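Work Package 3 (structural annotation) set out to generate three-dimensional models for the target panel prioritized at the project kickoff. During this period the team completed the workflow that converts sequence records into discrete structure tokens, so that structures can be stored uniformly alongside our sequence database. As a representative example, we reproduce one entry of 254 residues exactly as it appears in the project archive.
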Amino acid sequence: MARWVVPCGRSAGQPAVVLGITNRANHGNSVVPPGRSPGRIRPFGNAHAARTVLFVTALILAPHCVAGAGEDFEQGKRAFRAGDIVTAMVPLKRASQAGHAGAQALYAQILDRPEFNEEAVAWFRKSAEQSDPDGQYGLGSMLAAGEGVERDLVAARGWMEKAASQGHVLAINLLAQSYINGQLGLTAADRASPQALAVLIRAADIDFLPAIEALAQAYVSGGYGAAPDPASAEKYAAKLRARPGAKTGKGGKK
């Protein structure tokens, strides 16, 4: 009897779901569940019906596969946070191969540390294409640095913007820093645009100090798409005064 195995991303020592299929030459188009003999199975009229049953069965089993990947991801993440990278890699790789976006991003991050750059890029991309913000940020970082992939600042900024739109703090702060310093291929016109102001305000709202400093100055003399505005200048200067060691600029003198 031939068998089809539906894997759920588990290790070899764990059970997989097995669907028995009779050899068509001996038993016709019949589907034999585990534990049933071919003689007790009613044959299907054609191969299409057999494929339909297998497709429906796969749909029923899919949540179990996803659940297994999620468990592997949590196990790997716990080990990673505990500093046990070797232990973390086994379940993270398993979950990544099963399509778990969060696991793919974390597994890529681990691969990036010892400079397995091409592999890291591949897993970051799989994660990013599933709209995982960590994957998007990771892929953007690799593209910006040209590690494991041809350097592409425009594409890097695009992935960073996608991550930032989902609230990824590191992506928001990196974009703000890029508008301040002219990184990620941003032009002078880009840095004077309403988009620049919006990014800086968002970064300042999550207490990113360089963004607060930039806005305190911009609302005094203009810049980053902002027009002079004494009330806004004082608002950001006050935030600066609450931060020891911060630059106050003209608008932030005590």
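The longest strand covers residues 2-6.
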